């Protein structure tokens, strides 16, 4: 489903004529995904009338696709089982990973900026109360993943390396349906508790009074009707990132990313809407990264998922020269960085597209349709899989497939010595696999690599489950891989309570943002599984409380339009 088929593009020029609002609420929540639904519930439970305006035809956004782990420091279950997670330790860990170049254990803020430090403190303080309230009210009952490690559990700064992850109680064993479960229970609670929900409503600008306070929003329906909703206290945006806006990706991300697996409706609308009313932008250069199938990312396949665990043990990734260049089992955000290394000598991104290669063993033991796996079961969509009975045939088939994408890869093709190098790479990897130790990239040594080992075959006597020699015989399989986003994590800077800040760090009255549509304090880091949704729940909770405490804003009698091409209207 492409967005353009369902909802009109953002209108840029003529503003709707101001006038009466079509409906009126205390708090208008924009976006019905991982941040929007919890924010709406928290606001409603404080006694406000609340509407959720969702651009897509259904609720859920990217969160519906998620496993929906949520990372909650010092959570109730940790406290109950006696796992200490002190605030100072938490802050040290996140600082070490978010701004490693500034990290200083002796510094009072560990090298974080004042804003980053305060935002991380807010996560520590509010993620657990948010999770508990959602659970108590039946909106998001959870179970505790006591033994799941943080992604950098080995760092000395991680004093609580296991136990911060929660996940929806009713999620299946593979946890792949966690997002569906969460959206189902959150939506049911919203309906039960009287949150008004309107899907197929794309908010395209805010409405302000003469004092510059946000007093409402204007949305376009899928039929093209413009509707104005009054927000007596505040509008809370939770519209996700800009994964599906090529213009914003190209101009803000630090790397040439082909796309990603966020909801297709996440097109960075809030970047435009908030910029038009003077918001300052932060962290626009970073995203929650993940390897993805190059072909599916380019095709914008709606159900595209990231590769959270690269499947297979008799499997390697090679570059266009046939060389291994990375530990294929790194945690996804870290693994994705390899694609964007710049080769200054040859003026190219040599690893922008890598080639995953596996044999029949991995095909048989690691195939799954879940989590964006490249190795998929027979009978499922395997259009991205390239086959060859021999190495020679596989090379020919890869070369042919690469030609198809030449126009978006700068003419990428295999080097003349690809086959020779590939065979040497396989032979070297096979020696490592037999020894159980990868002398080149240390594959399988860290806890998170064992956690995400890609459902490899368990056999007695193996010291490193992540590696197994590739067979001397075909068939062999391959697929093209690149780095994608789960979603971006930059946008307007907010206070610790989600108030959007202008260029002087002054809150824009009545305007709030939570989730991937606003700036994350995490910088480049992906602290742990659930490190997007745990903090998002914390900020949804805080934003709802702050919005609840806002005064009711007056609407000035005489309407006046601001510049015709602005993203805001005055009334
Ligand atoms: C496959 C996959 C697995 C993941 N697993 C996890 C996990 O286990 N743990 C974790 O922490 N994170 C996970 N994530 C990331 C997580 O899903 C996101 O970080 C999270 O959903 C972000 O919440 P959000 O509210 O910011 O955005 P979303 O959940 O994407 O919601 C944004 C919503 O806003 C709507 N919208 C956009 N523009 C407008 C507009 N103009 N008007 C009205 N509505 C609008 C969108 O349609 C969408 O519904 C995963 C992501 C993917 C893709």
Secondary structure layout plus pairing:
Layout lengths: L2 H4 L16 E8 L5 H10 L4 E4 L16 E2 L4 H5 L6 H12 L15 H23 L5 E4 L19 E4 L9 H15 L3 E3 L2 E8 L5 E8 L4 E12 L8 H7 L16 H7 L5 E2 L4 E7 H6 L15 E4 L13 H4 L18 E6 H7 L19 E3 L2 H14 L13 H18 L11 H5 L24 E13 L2 E2 L6 E3 L5 E7 L19 H16 L19 E3 L1
Parallel strand pairs: 1-2, 1-9, 2-6, 7-19, 9-18
Antiparallel strand pairs: 3-5, 4-5, 7-8, 8-9, 10-16, 11-15, 12-13, 13-15, 14-15, 17-18
Helix pairs in contact: 2-6, 2-15, 4-5, 5-15
The protein binds flavin-adenine dinucleotide.
Flavin-adenine dinucleotide binds next to strand 7, strand 15 and helix 15.
Low-pLDDT segments, ≥5 res: 1-5, 12-18, 557-565
Inertia-based shape: globular
Counting H and I runs of at least 4 residues, what is the number of helices? Answer: 15
Mean pLDDT: 92
* Helix proportion range: 25-40%
CATH superfamily of the largest domain: FAD/NAD(P)-binding domain
CATH class of the largest domain: Alpha Beta
- Beta strand %: 15-25%
Radius of gyration equals 24 Å
- Main sheet characteristics: 9 strands, mixed
Ligand roster = flavin-adenine dinucleotide
* Total E-strand runs: 19
| The CATH topology of the largest domain | FAD/NAD(P)-binding domain
CATH architecture of the largest domain: 3-Layer(bba) Sandwich
Characterize the quaternary organization of these chains. single chain
Structural class based on helices, strands and sheet pairing = alpha/beta
Total separate domains: 3
- Rounded to the nearest angstrom, the distance between the terminal CA atoms is 35 Å
